[in-house]
């Protein structure tokens, strides 16, 4: 399991994959990576401290991810991150949080005292597909409402049941309402959600230009950021 990496193309930053408590929702139909969690505080903190020790601060920007939301990281790990932020002169953080935490985002901003870019797994702006098929439990009505809370949505493309029109709509909303975003090309896993190969081929051709868009990061594999397994 790789837990430290550097992103050197778009939005240069260091990134670490830490271990936290179980995801507060944990019922998304497509997700099988929430098992990277623990309830053993001492073990989590020891692992997280080792991962954090690799941070150099060379970009002044750090992204912290875990198999859930940043609010599920142990308090002790958050304190360790704050120490690293101050020691390495980190000027901006990237965190991820579920829609459930939308009214708590400023807690982290006050705790760290530096700007935070909040990512969130929106998956799609098609409400019916997101809630009734993917079981995301993120009840925002549209992209505009989501943009009132979060800075950078993560969307998925290439799932059986999606359509070209849905993907076009998602990317249009992403460009219209957000300055940053991530597109994850779906990869089959242990869940019953499956990849649509023809839709993926269409997306890769139709939206090849996104590779040159500095505001959008496209992940062709789950590990393209250099962390994970």
TrEMBL record:
<protein>
    <submittedName>
        <fullName>Radical SAM protein</fullName>
    </submittedName>
</protein>
<feature type="domain" description="Elp3/MiaA/NifB-like radical SAM core">
    <location>
        <begin position="13"/>
        <end position="213"/>
    </location>
</feature>
<dbReference type="InterPro" id="IPR006638">
    <property type="entry name" value="Elp3/MiaA/NifB-like_rSAM"/>
</dbReference>
